[in-house]
Write a structure and sequence with these properties.
- The structure holds two protein chains of two kinds.
- Chain A is an alpha+beta fold.
- Chain A has one domain: Clam (outer membrane lipoprotein receptor (LolB), chain A), CATH 2.50.20.
- Chain A contains three helices and twelve strands.
- The longest helix of chain A is centred in the N-terminal third of the chain and has 32 residues.
- Chain A starts with a helix and ends with a helix.
- Chain B is mainly alpha-helical.
- Chain B has one domain.
- In chain B, about 65% of the residues lie in helices and about 5% in strands.
- Chain B contains ten helices and three strands; from the N terminus they run H-H-E-H-H-H-H-H-E-E-H-H-H.
- A two-stranded antiparallel ribbon of chain B has the order 2-3.
- The chains are: A alpha+beta, B mainly alpha.
- Chains A and B meet through strand 2 and strand 5 of A and strand 1, strand 2, strand 3 and helix 9 of B.
Chain lengths: ~230, ~280
């Protein structure tokens, strides 16, 4: 009888934690769903080991539920994941289990950690940790681990479009696996490689500043299909 | 007299069919590379970027005229020395083989000026070849593929240069590439002063380039002291203009070494030609 009560208390407690997490996530998703489409100008600064690139500009187009396109005059480097995956993943409530964790301050804002674990094995996401500002119902930080691309940590800053849950800056911290350069193409044969055996920095940081949002303008599907 | 003789020497170069062989070969090779890039350029680019694309995406037009021009330069700059030596290696020894060297020496011009005029004519041919390559590589590629940021793969990673920041690099890169090819031209003229037939200086020039390139690429400490003084070490200096930041000090050092090579080789050619027995 005693054991039954202990189990009952634990399950009520855990159920409460899961319910709390689901409520918080639900508010975040609801906020994100108020955005049907947007266009935004992005300034991308990439500080990635073995890549030298100056800050570059691009225009990002997004339309629910997962249409996403980047258009730029020059070359822009972006993380392979982290823009729309989590929004799409969170939209389907049945596909994951959410657990609430500790509260932490991020950039002076009190956040609640929500750990999201997918129910099935088909999802590319293995684990997602989201630090959510419960007052504004926006994600302040995320750490997403996927099968295909390892781990990406993203820090969010918000400006005028916080009402839509759209960030003004994203800072991606990515795991850079040891890039291998094809030697036949790196044809600087006279340069010795011996001097470059320094310990590789395997963290890359990509900062994306987002300005001039145009939200819910009724973006046409053709934008996502036509070539640049 | 030097200018008149230089003009005559240039006319002689133009009158030889082999002079057009290089231009024809360059045009054909550039055409083939452009065709290959148009047909299957994306897969070649992904071969370079695939390692990065596990984590990152490259947005924008990666396959553009600037990249094609860079690839063409990188591929062909290795082969152009042969095309240069094919013509310049024949300038003195060809005259000896045909017997016209005696008639040339009877002209009211010093032997030193004869060698200098051949050197200048050879330099003009080399310059024309470099400009021809530049025109096709850069102008035609940019017309066909359009412009855009340039991705350069160096031994220490990728450098992405903005479109507006590329043309001056190509310009200066071509200048240094010309100086490197001029060194090949001068070497073959110097060797030509020692020979009585055309094949010897041409083959010897290529053999020296191959030998020096192999020594330069071997990571063996015993060669470390001589590597900086081999002209082949500095033949790829044009590539340094596509690094960020541009290592100007090492480029200037390369230019000095190439210029010194040219001066020494011309001096050797002049000395040898002045001593040459043309009566037997």
């Amino acid at each position: 009888m005693k054991k039954f009560f202990i189990l009952l208390i634990i399950s009520i407690q855990f159920g409460g934690i899961a319910q709390e997490a689901n409520d918080i996530l639900s508010k975040v998703v609801t906020k994100l769903n108020t955005v049907n489409d947007y266009t935004v100008t992005a300034t991308v600064k990439a500080n990635v080991p073995m890549i030298k690139i100056l800050p570059s500009k691009a225009t990002i187009y997004f339309k629910q539920k997962d249409k996403f396109k980047v258009v730029s005059k020059g070359i822009v480097i972006l993380p392979k994941q982290g823009f729309t995956e989590i929004n799409t993943f969170l939209a389907n409530k049945k596909s994951y289990l959410a657990v609430a964790g500790d509260t932490t301050k991020i950039s002076g804002v009190l956040t609640k950690l929500i750990t999201v674990i997918p129910n099935g094995e088909s999802s590319d996401i293995i684990l997602a940790k989201l630090w959510i500002d419960t007052k504004r119902s926006v994600i302040m930080k995320s750490q997403i681990t996927t099968k295909s691309n390892g781990s990406v940590a993203t820090t969010y800053s918000y400006g005028d479009n916080v009402t839509y849950g759209l960030p003004s800056q994203l800072v991606f911290e990515i795991d850079v696996k040891a890039f291998k350069l094809p030697k036949s193409v790196a044809a600087d044969i006279n340069k010795s490689t011996v001097e470059k055996k320094t310990k590789p920095n395997n963290k890359g940081v990509i900062t994306i500043s987002l300005t001039d949002y145009k939200v819910n303008t009724g973006l046409s599907d053709a934008v996502f299909t036509k070539k640049k | 007299m030097l200018l008149k003789n230089t003009y005559n020497e240039f006319i002689k170069i133009l009158s030889k069919p082999r002079s057009y062989l290089g231009i024809g070969a360059l045009t054909l090779l550039v055409g083939i590379i452009i065709f290959a890039m148009k047909a299957d350029g994306r897969s070649i680019i992904s071969f370079v970027t695939s390692s990065f694309e596990q984590t990152l995406t490259f947005n924008g037009d990666v396959l553009n005229g600037n990249l094609i021009a860079f690839i063409i330069l990188q591929m062909l700059i290795v082969h152009i020395p042969l095309l240069v030596a094919l013509v310049t290696g024949d300038l003195i020894s060809g005259e000896a083989a045909m017997g016209t060297i005696r008639m040339l020496a009877t002209k009211p011009i010093s032997r030193t000026n004869i060698v200098l005029s051949k050197f200048i004519a050879g330099a003009m041919y080399t310059l024309f070849l470099t400009l021809w390559l530049g025109f096709f590589a850069l102008f035609v590629s940019r017309q066909i593929f359009g412009t855009g940021d340039l991705i350069v793969l160096n031994s220490d990673g990728l450098v992405i240069l903005q479109d507006a920041d590329v043309l001056w690099r190509f310009g200066l890169g071509f200048c240094v590439a010309f100086l490197a090819l001029l060194t090949v031209s001068t070497l073959s003229i110097a060797l030509s002063a020692f020979a009585e037939n055309s094949i010897g200086p041409i083959v010897s020039t290529m053999a020296i380039i191959i030998l020096f390139t192999i020594i330069g690429s071997l990571d063996v400490t015993v060669f470390d002291n001589i590597k900086p003084f081999l002209f082949t070490t500095h033949m790829a200096s044009w590539r340094s203009f596509f690094e960020d930041p541009v290592p100007f000090s090492s480029i200037i050092q390369s230019i000095i070494i190439l210029v010194v090579h040219n001066i020494v080789l011309v001096a050797i050619a002049v000395y040898k030609f002045n001593k040459k027995d043309i009566t037997s």
